[in-house]
Amino acid sequence: MAKGESKKAKKAESKPKGEKKKKAKIKIDASNGFDTLAKLADHPLVTDLLAVGAMAAVAAIAEQGVASKTGQQAAEGSRKAVKAAGKAAAAAIGQRLLKEVGGLGAKVAKKA
Length: 112
Prior knowledge:
The protein has a domain at 43-112. Helix content is 78%, strand content 0%. The protein has four helices and no strands. The protein has helices at residues 3-13, 30-41, 44-69, 74-111. Helix 3 runs antiparallel to helix 4.
């Protein structure tokens, strides 16, 4: 076969120009996703993690508030307070997760 013949054969197999390729539609059930999220939020570990993070964030903001009264500028102080709150919350949640995972590892090791 020559190169020209193979190209013609491929063109003959393709669909006509007027016919469009149908896309598969995926139906997403929003209520199922919401139910799953609600069940996850009801889990005791998730609520505990949120509480730990919130307490750490509030403590960091309070600490920055005391520092701002001693002479920092307001805009710079609030920006630093938000950053400190985020870092404190992330650190507290990470420590709590490590504590939970470490506790699970010890329980599994005892059973084995």
